[in-house]
Design goal:
- This protein has about 55 residues and is of the alpha+beta class.
- It is globular, with a radius of gyration of 10 Å.
Length: about 55
């Protein structure tokens, strides 16, 4: 999955960008925190796991 698509889905679900980590970008929604790898392509299994964990599917 393209990184940009995953970020758009997270933002649509209420997550906002907090900061850049060393290898990840940090997105938060209240007390929930999600780290997104900084690659153009993100492994499909990882992308769907992130979305499922946050009830965005």
């Amino acid at each position: 999955m393209k990184r940009r698509i995953l970020i758009k889905l997270l933002e649509k679900g209420g997550f906002v960008f907090e900061r850049h980590g060393s290898n990840h970008d940090i997105y938060v929604r209240g007390n929930e925190r999600e780290e997104i790898p900084r690659h153009k392509e993100i492994n499909e299994v990882l992308a769907y796991a992130i979305l499922k964990r946050r009830d965005l599917l």
